[in-house]
Specification:
The structure is a homodimer. Chain A is an alpha/beta fold. Chain A has 10 helices and 13 strands. Chain A has 2 domains: about 130 residues, ATPase, nucleotide binding domain (Nucleotidyltransferase, domain 5, 2-Layer Sandwich), CATH 3.30.420; about 170 residues, ATPase, nucleotide binding domain (Nucleotidyltransferase, domain 5, 2-Layer Sandwich), CATH 3.30.420.40. Chain A has a 5-stranded mixed beta sheet, with helices on both faces. In chain A, strands 11-10-9-12-13 form a 5-stranded mixed beta sheet, with helices on both faces. Chains A, B: GO terms for molecular function: glucokinase activity.
Chain lengths: ~325, ~325
């Protein structure tokens, strides 16, 4: 039995994960950022004890705890170096949690943990090497090689959402120009769709968002395209071109067996992955001599974080 | 004592490398591609024996042999999967060489081997993590993490020269659009310089290549810029912008301690690296919370391949 903690901006989700990677107990607490981190960690520890009690278990029966956290993580030292979501800097969360729960505790970036979850029990089950790209507000990434999280060399993390696919392109929230995040996040999809809908008053996308472009969501351009709306098809084609470029960059770097797409946009499943596979295969170096990864959508959804975090425990 | 073999399109360079990573014996044979690979490998073996004899040594005193080869390498199986330079496909070179030389033999991609050489004895000596980008006809890359070659997951290699920095940009020789190679290789620099010189008849670059743009070389735009030639300065600024974009992509992926630039363009040394450092520092994710690699030029030049190959032997 292992314990996975998935820290999010709104809530902290905890789960008891068995050998079959099933979540057999859960508890969630709010991410209260009005209190010092020490207090939030104490609440996490209390919740863990509560969850164990609910399951009729004790901490001694638990092999260890894994934490997935947003931000830049120093996994070796167990420190959250910087988290924009939490407004935290240099928080020694592992040491702090150990004060309350005396077991082995590991930490990783939340996208890394989710990628590990998908490899252990999700869309890349059975694979040794996989890359997860989450297409949400931003583009998060997690790279798994030999069934372990790839962290690169020095602290700072492997941030594939912040590889530029246009040296002089759209400005990203990180300050750089042309980041994949600025072109292939769900937010970028909305931007492209809003622009296209505004240019094309005849597009059904306008109707679909009740003529209020603020109501645009990530499903509308896909639905419009499916209904044969030309502007909608253009949006999807443009978006998939950007995403394919990012995926091919990932393949030419990591040669994973699978590229897993997560986040809101991934709800489109084959509708999204089928055209991407076509686009990507001609962009990978080495042609038939190089391995071209399969492209799939995440299978675990929000549980990937808990299951992956639990699998940080060795 | 170890033995390094650096296979090139024109010649195969071999060296005896001591514990201090000095090359204490050398021999070179032409890369004769008119004969079957078995025959070329036999010549390589003969040359190795000759080199050992010249040094008054025997194969038994040699810890092993490392080979650096261009192309897509399956290091585990010791096979050159595909080399465009050699016109080879699925050549089991390690097995073939072992028929003649009964020692441990390892193989790696030549840029990987050169990167390893720079980490063991060159521009990144003392570093654990470094990335080499060679700016020549193409852009080769070698990634070293924890003092070992990073090969990614499946065969096909980590080809950082073929990460697109412009999803809809210049067509690369690999077929893809916008590859770093199409923007930051020495060949790309010549293309940019030729175009600019043609647009600006007043530019001193025209004079420097005797009004024959075919005579353009990688030094001319740098010399012109240094002399205050506006068109020359524009060429360098444009080229460095592309290269900085590629380097920042490398840093956001691998977080190396050093990015080493090799190949012809790297002869510019600080002239090249100083402005790049300025450009890159604002492009790296995490700002002051992430590690930003130093940018240096290669120190070993052509010897990096031999020294790195020798250090493949464990």
């Amino acid at each position: 039995m292992k314990l996975g903690i998935d820290m999010g901006g709104m809530s902290i989700k905890m789960g008891l994960v068995n050998e079959e990677n099933e979540i057999i107990g859960r508890i969630t607490i709010p991410t209260d950022l009005t209190v010092p981190y020490q207090m939030l960690v104490e609440r996490m520890a209390d919740a863990v004890q509560q969850m164990l009690e609910n399951a009729g278990m004790t901490l001694e029966q638990c092999e260890g705890i894994g934490i997935g956290s947003p931000g830049t993580i120093d996994a070796k030292r167990g420190v959250i170096l910087y988290s924009n979501n939490f407004g935290w800097e240099n928080v020694p969360i592992v040491e702090e949690l150990k004060k309350h729960l005396d077991v082995g505790i590991e930490i990783a970036n939340d996208a890394d943990a989710a990628a590990l979850g998908e490899v252990y029990a999700g869309a890349a089950e059975g694979a040794e090497n996989a890359v997860l790209l989450t297409l949400g507000t931003g583009v998060g990434s997690g790279v798994i090689l030999d069934k372990k999280i790839f962290r690169g060399g020095m602290p700072g993390g492997c941030e594939l959402g912040h590889l530029s696919i246009h040296h002089d392109g759209v400005r990203c929230t990180c300050g750089r120009k042309g980041c994949l995040e600025a072109y292939a996040s769900a937010s970028a999809l909305l931007r492209i769709a809003r622009e296209k809908a505004a240019e094309h008053p005849e597009s059904v996308m306008n109707e679909m968002c009740k003529n209020d472009l603020e109501q645009m969501n990530g499903k509308i351009p896909f639905d419009a395209a499916k209904a044969g709306d030309e502007a909608g098809m253009e949006v999807i084609k443009e978006y998939e071109g950007y995403l394919a470029c990012g995926i091919a960059n990932v393949i030419n770097t990591f040669r994973p067996e699978k590229v897993i797409l997560g986040g809101g946009v991934a709800a489109q499943k084959e509708n999204l992955t089928a055209p991407l596979k076509d686009l990507v295969k001609d962009m990978c170096f080495g042609g038939s001599h190089g391995y071209i990864a399969d492209i799939v959508t995440s299978a675990l959804g929000n549980d990937a974080g808990i299951i992956g975090a639990a699998n940080l425990v060795v």
